[in-house]
Amino acid sequence: MAGLAAFAVAAFTPVAAPLDRWLASAPDAGQADAVVVLGSDVDPNGRLPEDSLRRATEAVALYRQGRAPLVLMLGSRNGAASEAESRARLAEGLGVPASAVLTEPRGLTTAVEAQRSAELLLPRGARRILLVTGEHRVWRARRHFERAGFEVLAAPVPEGAPTSNTPGERLSAIGGLLQELAARALYRLRGEV
C-alpha cells in the first residue's frame, strides 16, 4: 500500500520540484583558467543529444563572456564518434578558436575525466576551472576534480523538467532525482566526500 501511495504522489503531484531545487547546485561567480565540460553522450554518427549540447553551449557562453581563455571538452567514444571532438567542432563553429579548445575522449567516468583533465591542464598552469555538468551532478563531480588538484567553480546546466505536466514525465523526473540521491549515498559510503 505504501508503494502505491508513493507512486501516486510521484506521478500526480509536483513533488519532484522541491527535490530538484534541493539537489541542484548554484553557479559560482569568478574567472577561471579553463572551462571543463564533463562528458554526457554521443550517438555513433557524432550527433550530440540534448544534455551534451546544453553543456557544450554553456562552455561556449562562458568562453565568450571572458570567464576563461581555454575550453576542455571531455566525452568518450561511441563507435567511431567522439563526444569531445563533436563538441569541439560545435564550439569552433560557434566562434571559439581551435587554439582555445582541447579535447579528451578517453574518460569513461567522472573520476577518470578528473585525472585526464589534471594531466592536460595542470602542466599548463590551469588550476582554477569552471566545471560544466548537469546541475544535480556538480556536487559529486566537484569532489573528483578537487582531489585531482583543481579549484572548482560550478557552472551547472539544467538537467530536466521537474515540473512536468504528465504522470510519465513526473515519474521520469523523480526517477532521475532518486538516482542522484542514491549516487550521493554511495559516495558517502565509500568515503568519497
From TrEMBL:
UniProt-listed GO biological process terms: Gram-negative-bacterium-type cell wall biogenesis; peptidoglycan metabolic process
Transmembrane segments: none
Domain named DUF218: residues: 33-163
GO cellular component, one term: plasma membrane
Pfam family, one: DUF218
Highest taxon of source: Bacteria
UniProt protein name: DUF218 domain-containing protein
Organism of provenance: Sorangium cellulosum (Polyangium cellulosum)
